[in-house]
Specification:
The chain is of the alpha/beta class. It folds into 2 domains: about 250 residues, Alpha-Beta Barrel (TIM Barrel), CATH 3.20.20.70; about 55 residues, Alpha-Beta Plaits, CATH 3.30.70. The protein has an 8-stranded parallel β-barrel with strand order 1-2-3-8-9-10-11-12, surrounded by 7 helices. The longest helix has 19 residues. It is globular and about 50 Å long. The two termini are about 20 Å apart.
Amino acid sequence: MLKELLDTNHCFKLVCGAGNEDVEEIKRLVYVYAIAGCRFFDLSANEEVISAAREALELAKVYDAYLCVSVGIKNDPHVNKAVIDYERCVNCGSCEAVCPQGAIHYAKVKKIKCIGCGRCWKVCSRAAISYVSEEKNLDEVLPSIVDKGIDCIEFHAMGLNEEEITSKWKYINDNYEGILSICTSRGKLSDEALVKRIKEMTKDRKPYTTIIQADGFPMSGGEDNYKSTLQAVATAEIVQNEKLPVYIMLSGGTNGKTTELAKMCEISYCGVAVGSYARKIVKRYIERSDFWKNPNVLKDALDVAKPLVDTVIC
């Protein structure tokens, strides 16, 4: 059971991206990280994506892994997609150069790959990039996914729309009996407001049936240094200080330094969720056309993926 994995306090979760619906990429990511030792995978709430992850686990001969699907509220960055205004765009290529997903090519956005990270918007000198929210209607996507069997639902409770958060959280609780994860950060909330939100959302939950994914700086991973992961550890400390009966998972800027810094700061956590950095270090290998045919490609991918997983599970 997933709870048993969380109780070990050595859970590595691969975040494939709530907005990432590139089925082949997901399949390759899950395959590599499953062989590397990962047993918890965070996926878009998309049946094709879930099927691809399960196929990868079968190929990897890993039968003790758990799948989590992520959903969010309107304008949550994890469910945003980039849109380019071609009247403003001069096709300078800056956005393509910084996109960690390779979702932009010749000033065109491949929506299934876009994860709404905001990097392209930051570098656009013409203000030609904006975002549209593509949050999923829970009553349309969750019933069939739950029926087919998943191990966790993660709710991205970011933003200030308390009414929408309350409504969607109630729907999830009413329609799913398993472990739930709340992914939240201090981006638009004070420390006090963050704690208040978590307490309100967990007050009717049974002890240790909820993961609080302390998202320090959402989708900010990419570099393997202490500064990148500092906010994840700081956010986890805020949650830890409340002594709530929840599992704490570090996220947002996480990398190979996360567990070391967390231990230095005496943070008690069940695991670490790694997205941007985990995807980045294997990107060159999973994009290879001979990925499934050349065993050396998998070997090279594992040479960088396994040490990252080992920082958490060992």
